[in-house]
Amino acid sequence: MNVFRTLLANASGGGAPMKMVLVVRSDLGLKKGKIASQCAHAAVLCCMRAANGLDGKAKLDAWLMQGQPKIVLRVDSLEAMHSVSAQAKQVGVIAEIVRDAGRTQVASGTETVLGLGPDQSEAIDSLVGHLKLL
């Protein structure tokens, strides 16, 4: 039984809970479908960034084994999103900002969503624990 638990813990990232957080700008008034699309873009960007680094690859693998948990939060401004992004980069958490193509609801280049992680839940929570769910 101990061998099984050890294998399971190793497969799930050594037992450390992992997550990805998607931070949406609420000041843009995006429609639900647009938010969903922008969040998907952020998740893909974060996965691509994680896959390109040794430490990121290990975190990506652990997150994938844990079922790819994702949380969607909101910020009220571009400045607030940039602040969280800068803090993430300082502590080594992947931070990717989606810039819209401008074909539908917002101008080209508008920064809509910040993706964080995948990383240990504790590291991400220290960055976004003050934010509210979308």
**Stretches with pLDDT under 50, minimum 5 residues:** 1-8
Radius of gyration, whole Å: 16 Å
The dominant shape is globular
Distance between the termini: 41 Å
Number of strands: 5
Report the total helices: 5
**Element order, helices and strands?**
HEHHEHEEHE
Q: In the CATH hierarchy, what is the class?
A: Alpha Beta
CATH topology: Bit1
Major sheet description: 5 strands, mixed
Helix percent reads 40-55%
On the 0-100 scale, what is the average pLDDT?
91
Give me the CATH superfamily. Bit1
Write a short abstract of this structure.
By secondary structure, the protein is an alpha+beta fold.
What's the SSE blueprint?
Blueprint: H1 2-11, E1 18-25, H2 32-51, H3 54-65, E2 70-75, H4 78-91, E3 95-99, E4 111-120, H5 121-128, E5 132-133
Parallel strand pairs: 1-2
Antiparallel strand pairs: 1-4, 2-5, 3-4
Helix pairs in contact: 2-3, 4-5
List the keywords.
globular; 134 residues; Bit1; 48% helix
Can you offer a commentary on this structure?
By secondary structure, the protein is an alpha+beta fold. It has a single domain, classed as Bit1. 48% of the residues lie in helices and 23% in strands. The protein contains 5 helices and 5 strands. The chain has a 5-stranded mixed sheet with strand order 3-4-1-2-5, sandwiched between helices. Helix 2 packs across helix 3 and helix 4 runs antiparallel to helix 5. Belongs to the PTH2 family. One of its GO terms (molecular function) is peptidyl-tRNA hydrolase activity. This is peptidyl-tRNA hydrolase.
